[in-house]
Amino acid sequence: MPSTRPLRSAARLLAVAALTALAVLPGSGPAAARTDDTARAAVAAPELLIGQSTRAAWDDFQTFGRDADGGSVYYELRSGDWVNDAHRSYATMLAQQGKTIQVGVSWKDNPPGFGGGDENAKAARSRAVTAEIAAGGHAASLDRLVAFADAHPAARFKLRLDYEVSSFYHCTDASCSSYKNTFARLASDLDRRSTAHNLEYVFHPVRGEFEAMYPGDAAVDWMGVSVFAHELCLPMYERGYLYNGTPPQNYDTGTSQCRNAYIGTDSSGNPAAVWRTFDHDANVLKLVKFARDHGKPVVLSESGMMNFTADGGSTDGLEQQRGDQWVKRLFALMNYEGPIPNLPGRHDLRGVIRSVVYIDLDFRYGWDGIDDGSFDFPPDTTWFVDGRLSRYGAAKASFCQGLSANGFTARCR
Q1: In angstroms, rounded to a whole number, what is the distance separating the alpha carbons of residues 4 and 101?
Q2: Which of 91, 102, 173, 386 suits a disulfide with 158, CB 3.0-4.6 Å?
Q3: Using CA atoms, how far apart are residues 172 and 163, in angstroms rounded to an integer?
Q4: Distance (Å, rounded) from C-alpha 390 to C-alpha 270?
Q5: What's the predicted TM-score (pTM) here?
Q6: What is the pLDDT of residues 109-161, one digit of tens each?
């Protein structure tokens, strides 16, 4: 379903203006093309949002930082409500301050009408719900969310129309018209229902499916991507080390970097594959380039440390060193210039990432970060990590430096 809705956010317009100025880049256009520094300077400051789900993350950041722009919570279609009271409470606190709130509007994790079964059965129901939404179904499930946004007109809402979307959970055929139509239908209907006009829409795919599932320029305001370990070419521990999602093939274990080829030139000036190491996953770089080419700013919708070490400690030993390395690579992604695997030339991706959600939680104790015995992660698994920046030395210092160097309003005390 096509959408003709207007762009409503002044910050969004500034971001698009700057991205338009950056559309012709060194190595990809006329020799005279260059970055327009004036246009770049006109862009609103990038946002820092503190994730996720609970005020505990916000409170930890407040121990060393200030002026964060907002946070991140979740809302589900099945119940037609926030995932739980902690999400509602955090969203309310942020909205009352006129902050930005990223909302993951989910149906894949708990599909309406799903009566039980394995992951394949749940995915099948999620695909069916996706098609039902495109046909106009489940509209009443968003009543509370629309009313909440209207009740807080000074706040801004970035709505992820489901998150980490994939063909497995959202596409009923190879064209993925089911999800594309659903995204456009939801954006159009929500805009029509909104009286505060403070809604923006985030397309947040898994890394490798952004192009095939893209709902179109008219419907999308932001492109989202998750950035954890593999996205920054760092290993994580999951009952043994995993390197960029696989055993260490095409991976430099000594430097913790991905090895990929890009299209360069040989000694005669002919196109040729050139191998080199990268600090960032190829699919992430390609997604950011795709967003730039379509004039869309990027939000790092979920970003956080993972279990980098096998010692069972939350912030001991290499966890401190790799935590610092993770932070530095995160901010380096915001300023990436260089080759992209499997593509020719050099690419300037600076200024495309305009919003960062950092998950400032102790993940050892589940998604809420609360040590109450309700949902803890085993010490030898991916999420067993204390991601609270207040518990780090060098990583926190690098994070604070990254905020300042990249012009964030948020600062450290």
Answers
A1: 24
A2: 102
A3: 17
A4: 51
A5: 0.91
A6: 999 999 999 999 999 999 999 999 999 999 999 999 999 999 999 999 999 99
